[in-house]
Amino acid sequence: MKRLLAAFTFVAIFLTGCGDNTAVAPPTETMADATKKIVIAFLPKQKGVPYFTSCAEGAELAAKELGNIEIKYDGPTDGSPEKAAELIEQWVLKGVDVIAVSCNDPAVLSPALKKAREKGVKVITWDADSDKDSRDFFVNQPTAEQIGFGLVDAMAKDLGGDSATGEVAIVTARLTAANQNEWMKHMNVRLAKYPGLKLVATKPSNEDQKLAFEVTSGLIKAYPGLKGVFGISSVAFPGAAEAIKQAGKSGSVLITGLSTPNDMKAYVMEGTVKSVLLWDTRDLGYLTVEVAAALARGELKPGATTFTSRKLGERKIEGDNVLLGDPMVFNKENIGKYDF
């Protein structure tokens, strides 16, 4: 036995001394770790809104197709960031693997997300970002510039192109909505391309369709020269469109913005709305879950420049933003082809 052990020792020493002495790191995760169920908490700005419901459908589809992923979808029905922060704290206590948040108020939610990261939970944002130091990655739709420029270009086209003239106004969600504030910065830059368009007001609707209706009705009365309204949330847009319709201004006050095709089809077909901008919300939810799972399993790390989606193919990563792609424009010719 002693001779046998000595022989094994000699062989081990001999093999260790051969080759280029390059250390081979041990596997970072076992097969059991690779197949461990990943629990992802998926938080919208406001639960019950069609935009976010369709995002959740995409998230559930990704979980089903990827396998071994559980989605916990929940959020405040009134859009309260304080209630969203409470949910984040609850999920941390329950030991979820990843929290994915559409952030409607970074000042409120970022501290809760930082605490989650300190407890070892992976954090990503989607749709709307938090403070950068409170999350790992942001699954962004198009860039803020693409959205802002796209909205203004669509309005200008609807009003006659480069020579478009008239007063325009913006109906946003909340004044604390970081993503919409970024979009508006780029909208203001792009408006310089169309000197005939004058931005006269920016009003919040607090993710309330009824309030969006009331705000837009007020804008129509306050600005007799109003020619266009931007509804830059999926709730503000249909509310503003209904106000224009009921005021008898369809065709004379144009409106464009961001919302789901299903919410805007009737307005497009009757002529109140000429163009709707958005992205496939189901794809946004799908990509978010893919990114969350890859992050949890150590497959996605800082410095990556691309991300390969099972469904969408290769997506760009700019900094720590995983980009879904260019915005889509829906109009009378194509809106009937989409169901979300």
Describe this structure in words.
- The protein has 340 residues and is α/β, with parallel strands linked by helices.
- The protein contains eleven helices and 14 strands.
- It has helices spanning 2-17, 31-34, 50-66, 81-94, 106-118, 144-158, 178-191, 209-222, 236-246, 261-270, 281-296; strands at residues 38-43, 69-73, 98-101, 122-126, 137-140, 166-172, 197-204, 226-231, 254-258, 273-278, 306-309, 313-318, 321-323, 328-330.
- An eight-stranded mixed β-sheet has the order 2-1-3-4-5-13-12-11, sandwiched between helices.
- A hairpin with a 2-residue loop joins strand 12 and strand 13.
- Helix 8 crosses helix 9 (236-246).
- The protein is elongated, with a radius of gyration of 25 Å.
- Residues 1-32 have low confidence and may be disordered.
Write the layout of secondary structure elements.
Blueprint: H1 2-17, H2 31-34, E1 38-43, H3 50-66, E2 69-73, H4 81-94, E3 98-101, H5 106-118, E4 122-126, E5 137-140, H6 144-158, E6 166-172, H7 178-191, E7 197-204, H8 209-222, E8 226-231, H9 236-246, E9 254-258, H10 261-270, E10 273-278, H11 281-296, E11 306-309, E12 313-318, E13 321-323, E14 328-330
Parallel strand pairs: 1-2, 1-3, 3-4, 4-5, 5-13, 6-7, 6-8, 8-9, 9-10
Antiparallel strand pairs: 10-14, 11-12, 12-13
Helix pairs in contact: 3-11, 4-5, 6-7, 8-9
